[in-house]
Amino acid sequence: MLKYSSYQSIYNTAVAQGGHTGGRTAGQNSSPLISMLRLFVAVIVLWISFAGLFTVFAGSSDLHASNEKVVVLTGDTLWGIAQEHKPDYMDTRVYIEGIIRINGLESSGIRAGDVLLLPEF
């Protein structure tokens, strides 16, 4: 077996002989600036994640079926239907979720000839 086959074997040999390993241990940071940078990046990532989550749920929770119905044509998608009929201030994903709930769809798959009720917000 090779004497230095892994990082662990080199590290253990140097420590066992009482020598200095030549570097910092895993628990030491190289500087406070790097710690602050890591914290800043973590905060930014969390902020972006929560901003996206709030955008998804930005629509109103009052969900009523309007009298408007849409017949699905060949090539239609829920995204396209939602883009045409949603209010200007609403996120398209929220409107699609409303269409799915009102019509009792189990997925976003629709077929030509389906009749969909549109939500009213």
Written overview of the protein:
The protein has helices spanning 7-16, 32-56, 78-85, 92-103, and strands spanning 64-71, 115-120. With 121 residues, it is α+β, with helices and mostly antiparallel strands. The protein has a domain at 64-120: Membrane-bound Lytic Murein Transglycosylase D, Chain A (Roll). Strands 1-2 form a two-stranded antiparallel sheet. The mean pLDDT is 78. Residues 69-119 form the LysM domain. This is LysM peptidoglycan-binding domain-containing protein.
List the helices and strands and how they pair.
Layout: H1 7-16, H2 32-56, E1 64-71, H3 78-85, H4 92-103, E2 115-120
Helix pairs in contact: 3-4
For the structure shown, list the relevant keywords.
single chain; 121 residues; alpha+beta; Membrane-bound Lytic Murein Transglycosylase D, Chain A; two-stranded antiparallel ribbon; 12% strand; elongated
Note the run of SSEs as H and E. HHEHHE
**Helix content percent band:** 40-55%
User: Could you please say which CATH topology of the domain at 64-120 applies here?
Assistant: Membrane-bound Lytic Murein Transglycosylase D, Chain A
The biggest beta sheet reads:
2 strands, antiparallel
Strand order of the largest sheet: 1-2
Arithmetic mean of pLDDT: 78
* Architecture per CATH nomenclature, i.e. the level-2 architecture of the domain at 64-120: Roll
Regions with little confidence, pLDDT below 50 for 5+ residues = none
The DSSP helix count reads 4
Q: For the record, what is the CATH homologous superfamily label of the domain at 64-120? A: LysM domain
- For the record, give the distance between the C-alpha atoms at the N and C termini, rounded to a whole number: 72 Å
The number of strands is 2
What is the CATH C-level name of the domain at 64-120? Alpha Beta
Give me the Rg, rounded.
Answer: 28 Å
Note the overall shape: elongated
Task: Classify the beta-strand content into a percent band.
Answer: 5-15%
Structural class: alpha+beta
